[in-house]
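Onboarding guide, step 5: your first structure request.
Type a short instruction followed by the sequence, for example:

Predict the 3D structure of this protein.
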Amino acid sequence: MRLILQVVLITATLAIAPVRFDRHKVFRVKPQDETQAEVITHLAKTNELDFWYPDTIHHVAANMTVDFRVSEKESPSIQAALDQSKMHYEVLIHDLQEEIEKQFDVKEDSPGRHSYAKYNNWDKIVAWTEKMVKKRPEMVSRIKIGSTFEDNPLYILKIGKEHKGRKAIFMDCGIHAREWVSPAFCQWFVYQATKSYGKNKIMTKLLDQMNFYVLPVFNVDGYIWSWTQNRMWRKNRSKHHNSTCIGTDLNRNFDASWGASQSSHNPCKETYPGTAPESEKETAAVADFIRSHRESIKAYLTFHSYSQMLLFPYGYTSKLPPNYQELDKVAKIGAEALSSRYETHYIYGPIATTIYPTSGSSLDWAYELGIKYTFAFELRDRGRFGFLLPESRIKPTCKETMLAVKFIAKYILRNAI
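The system replies with structure tokens like these:
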């Protein structure tokens, strides 16, 4: 009996042990021609490569920068294959676990206070939403728009005064779990918007005349999992029939050319789009909320990382949107506003031709719903740290991004009908 109990305890311990990434490497390669691109495709079929950029093997092409993670065990054979094919490559991260631990490089200011210079877990973010409402009840309200697969609440913070008929902007962060700097920005935005009201002329005017709906964490279950079990987790945590693999890519689950553009219909893949558009509780909740506020929502902003880009529709086709010239102009000036702080360079353009083709994205869906100003930010950096941006880079990232968001919001206030 004692032996059985020990076995049960050991099994339980093993079951909840967080994934470690000791000596995992992140490679950056640039295939010069289709032959070299095929080498990467072959390696992906015979090894477990976690693609960071682009997010799937289907998008790999000649003259494209490709970042992927590989385990310590597979690194030597990958390196040998790259050398043999004479492909240019560099190792961006030599020990991923080390970088994960080094990510937390900012000390707590004062324990108990919410820190905007640190990454915050889900429990801290929930407590923060309550605190923001208590602190500024005349300006901040919390709306529960639904629940996740694991029954965690989906909270939106509404920022602005109670007046009917006002224009609004919807913002979401953290649709992909491992992109931690994204939720950090949504927290920063709410804090700075409310703090600077009455002090900063632009923000005061914006909040006097429009509302912001801010979803600090879209993919709550995945975000929790990335904190407790697997820092590199991307999808949500839904279960699937006839598969032991977990999760759907929520940014492939919207009804905008869903399931096309070479999305993988294998539940084990990182870009699995689900069984149907809005099959996921999180996607359906967000889509329902936006549909029910369609008259007031004039812009949709979504925040990701990494690669320093400001993107607009379309993702599922290289065809340009009807108001391409206007979107391009707004993105250009937004990128310039962002770079004015620290000279951080962003490139901008339609998703399909600027980053890579995607189908089922929230951005395309919002645009096709009739929201004519839709933008996706791919925040810092350009690959040195990738998804593991150190905490010391959070504030600069948020400060520069805030400049672009304020410009877009001012433009919406003046021009959106």
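Each response can be followed by summary notes, for example: The chain has 13 helices and twelve strands.
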